[in-house]
Write a structure and sequence with these properties.
Elements lengths: L1 H17 L4 H9 L3 E11 L22 H12 L7 E14 L3 E5 H4 L4 E5 L5 E10 L4 E6 L22 E6 L7 E12 L9 E4 L11 E3 L5 E8 L10 E5 H14 L5 E2 L2 E5 L2 H6 L8 E6 L15 E5 L2 E2 L3 H10 L5 E8 L2 E8 L1 E2 L23 E3 L2 E5 L2 H7 L8 E6 L4 H4 L7 E5 L2 E2 L3 H13 L4 E7 L5 E7 L2
Antiparallel strand pairs: 1-2, 1-4, 2-3, 3-6, 4-5, 5-6, 7-8, 7-10, 8-9, 9-12, 10-11, 11-12, 13-20, 14-15, 15-16, 16-17, 16-18, 18-19, 21-22, 22-23, 23-24, 24-25, 24-26, 26-27
């Protein structure tokens, strides 16, 4: 009997421990009134079709299920109950949280995007019309303002997301599936997660249950501080599978402050195009270990130009912060105040140098132009020389016209690329122009071959090419030479 009682006692303790730390309930009680529902209304043109294709979005529940009526009403309301083909109103619900008792709330941009009307629903059911202060699409954040009700508001404070540790307990509060204020808990699964959703990705990954409707809601630490904004999930089913992502508070604070002050984002701008420093490129530039952001191009009217930064430089430190990869440079430049003078440490020809740059302002309307890849025109080949699986020719007027290459582009033209060569794998193509080989300018095919032979004699495994497209956009490519 004693053994049986001991086992029962052990089993009774395990579930309590599995729930997490005791402080979760205290935090939830403290901050729940600061978490709000965001309700939006949008007028759209209905696309009527046989059977109304929207019905496929409604979950299939067993007849008589206690949730059957709830979900039927929910999805009918989303469709507006209108089977006609005219304009109709559609409603959506998300989450948000109050950061200022004067009536300021934060949510996701995608929660309120294209909305005709935005309302904030308090935890006690009070509904208040809200206005948009500003949005930042690149971090998917939005700031709203509203007239506070007679009852005093509760606002939350931001914590320091940089201090988060892997495995630390966090609490998500939001409005999943329109069920109202819902509390879930989990741990920090990863930090600085880049999922290629935007140029400034640095998400907190958590296994706290986040579902549709949680978007824009806060992620709290056990001190009741907001350390992230729940933004998206990875799920094949649409429900939580324990992989959720939150924008870290460090990013949110800067965005919210800028939107409140200016109604828009004012990000720093360096005026360069950057790319990854691969192992091959690092070997070509005598950089050990591979790190930093390689400068592939410099804007003529950008801040980097007068500071003396050049293509081929590798940025390893910016304003005292280490740069391990290109994303690091993008984030830290964007977070730096416009007009601030900063020290930029670069590696040039194997040696470190420090340049001082006064940052400009990024025009967020500009989109980065990727290095283009041209298809090979079908025409007679000019007299060429061959190297590294490339057919090379001098830039004549005829070839410039044929490949649409600007007069400002100087170098050696690639007229053909061998299939299966390293050059083909690196996406070099006919119409590209080799501007430099191993950081030395080349003017004809003979120059290219001589530089490559010299690289081979030095025992190096790869050679670094500076390549331009017809419009003059530059990128670096490392090719094997052995």
């Amino acid at each position: 009997m004693a053994v049986g009682l001991a086992c029962a006692a052990a089993l009774s303790v395990a579930p309590a421990q599995a729930r997490g730390p005791d402080g979760i309930a205290d935090v939830a009680e403290k901050v729940i009134d600061a978490v709000v529902n965001i309700s939006t209304t949008q007028t759209i043109e209905a696309k009527a079709g046989p059977g109304d294709g929207n019905k496929g979005a409604s979950p299939q529940l067993p007849p008589g299920s206690p949730f059957e009526e709830f979900f039927d009403d929910f999805f009918k309301n989303r469709r507006g109950g209108d089977k006609g083909g005219g304009p109709r109103k559609t409603n959506s619900l998300g989450s948000g949280f109050i950061v200022d008792t004067a009536g300021i709330a934060v949510t996701n941009n995608h929660v309120i995007a294209d909305a005709d009307e935005i309302n904030i629903i308090m935890n006690d059911g009070t509904k208040i019309k809200a206005e948009l202060v500003g949005v930042d699409k690149k971090t998917d954040l939005a700031v709203l303002k509203f007239k506070p009700p007679a009852k005093p508001l509760v606002a939350v404070k931001f914590g320091d997301s940089d201090k988060l540790r892997l495995g630390e307990w966090v609490i998500a509060i939001g409005n999943p599936f329109s069920l109202g204020g819902t509390v879930t808990a989990g741990i920090v699964s990863a930090r600085n997660r880049d999922i290629n959703s935007g140029p400034y990705d640095s998400y907190i990954q958590t296994d706290a249950a986040i579902n549709r409707g949680n978007s824009g809601g806060p992620l709290f630490n056990l001190d009741g501080e907001v350390i992230g904004v729940n933004t998206l999930i990875i799920s094949p089913s649409g429900g939580s599978i324990g992989i959720g992502f939150a924008v870290p508070s460090k990013t949110v604070i800067g965005v919210v402050d800028s939107l409140r002050q200016f109604g828009e984002l004012r990000r720093g701008w360096l005026g360069v195009r950057i790319q990854q420093v691969t192992d091959e490129i690092a070997e070509s530039l005598n950089i050990k270990p591979a790190r930093g952001a390689l400068i592939a191009g410099v804007e003529e009217k950008g801040p980097a130009k007068p500071a003396g930064i050049e293509p081929g430089d590798v940025v390893v430190k910016f304003d005292g912060k280490d740069i391990k990869e290109p994303k690091d440079l993008s984030r830290v430049v964007a977070d730096t105040a416009v007009g601030k003078s900063v020290d930029v440490v670069i590696i040039r020809k194997g040696k470190e140098e420090t340049k001082q740059v006064t940052l400009g302002r990024l025009d967020d309307g500009d989109k980065p132009v990727p290095a283009s890849v041209k298809s090979q025109p079908e025409a007679e080949k000019p007299v060429t020389q061959k190297a590294l699986g490339l057919d090379l020719a001098g830039l004549s007027k005829e070839l410039r016209a044929k490949y649409k290459i600007k007069d400002s582009v100087k170098g050696v033209l690639i007229t053909s690329v061998d299939i299966g060569s390293d050059a083909a794998e690196k996406r070099l193509a006919a119409g590209d122009v080799i501007v430099e080989v191993a950081q030395e300018a080349v003017g004809n095919a003979g120059d290219v071959k001589k530089r490559i032979e010299a690289i081979k004699k030095d025992g190096k495994k790869s050679v670094l090419l500076l390549v331009s497209n017809g419009d003059g956009e530059l990128r670096f490519v490392a090719l094997g030479v052995q």
